[in-house]
Amino acid sequence: MSLRLVLLGPPGAGKGTLAAVLNKELGLGSVSTGELFRNEIRRRTTLGRQVTRYVSSGRLVPDELVVKVMARRLSRRRVGRGVVLDGFPRTVGQARGLDAFLKARATPLHAALYLDCPIALLISRLSGRRVCQRCGRNYHTRTMRPKRAGLCDACGGPLIMRKDDQAKTVAKRLEIDRAKAKPLLEFYRQRHVLYRLDGRGGIVQVFQRLRRLLNHEGWLKNSGR
Fold first, then answer.
1. Is 162 labeled as catalytic in the residue annotation?
2. What is the pLDDT of residues 71-106, one digit of tens each?
3. Of 4, 68, 73, 90, which one is the catalytic site residue?
4. From the CB of residue 112, how many other CB atoms can be counted at a distance below 10 Å?
5. Cys bridge to 3: 25, 32, 61, 82, which one at CB 3.0-4.6 A?
6. Domains of the chain and any CATH numbers
7. Cα distances (Å, whole numbers) of residue 6 to 3, 84, 86, 225
8. Is 173 a catalytic residue?
């Protein structure tokens, strides 16, 4: 049996990092919406051109189109030990589309994992980001420091804090995100597949918590791990 997991949580919760660890440690393929959009746009596919029309005009990509892009990717990939979806679904409409896609293939979702973090921790993580004004390389004041304070390792350019990463702006973003997430979490709660995972601490601690959950549910044993 292959695992099918969805990673949910606010910005800064560590979804992308956890997805990478799941790939390395458990062999789960990671699929992100952003990666799929960029790939379709780069290849200039029909779906890519449709996505471009929305993105270039600053509009949200409709749920139906997002589901089509994701379904195309999942249909092509070899599932292997399983797949973890990062950044998808974001809405109830997308969740319904994913649910229909998986049910049509008799491969229902095992779990929607919500990485739960205190607001103060999320603000600390997000407001610590710095970007090189010259080349755009990213750093973090705690977890990814440059060799020389305030200067980019790659080009020597000055590191700045983007307006979006200022504490007040981050707090507002998190407030909006939490409100938007409620219907999606309720969708998965009603289907008895929603699991909350403590996102505090380092990635090793978070992964250990997740591994205990997967073992408790018997999913790792059934998947050969």
1. yes
2. 888 887 555 678 999 989 999 999 999 999 999 988
3. 90
4. 23
5. 82
6. 3-122+177-222 (3.40.50.300)
7. 10, 6, 6, 19
8. yes
